[in-house]
Write a structure and sequence with these properties.
8 strands, Aminopeptidase, eight-stranded mixed beta sheet, about 190 residues, single chain, alpha+beta
Length: about 190
Amino acid sequence: MDPAYPKLSESLETGRLLVRKYKAGDGKALLALLERNNNRQFLLPNVEEVAKIKDIDAAEVKVRQHAEEWEDRKRFVMGIWRKKDSLYIGEIWIEPNQWNVPSFELGWFLDAGVLGKGLATEAANRSLTFLFNNLQAHKVIVITRDTNLRSIKLAERLGFKREGHFREARIENGSRYGLVFFGLLKSEFLC
């Protein structure tokens, strides 16, 4: 944790979305997301930790853990809610990489049922504004599996530059996959 940062806004808004710090009771929304649109299977290859949540207790523990991480400034994890119907549709996470740079890692997942509507782009872009303007980030990185074409395209759409590809760097269930690394400097960010 870096104490130099003042109290941070716990919610971000866009035209269609509310992106906010988790609070007690949000586990119900997380579990509901996992139980619709075949999201467990959809998320399993890229967000296994979330996809394996089995019940309301585990979901509530997860969102409360994220709220504690926020307070400790270890990670800034926020749920994404659609404004028009208050439907929980995903998550954005920001992890400090090096406070002295400062650099952060950005990640996300979205409900399979809302893909293709620009919502991930909207949430991630608003998060980048938060990172560069509020957290004074110099650099933001995205690391994704080379099999996750949606995340690769989103990173590129947001202006990230591909900085590396660790080919066949990992293995899971007998299948090899690589990791693609992207970076975006504050000077490259068009808000």
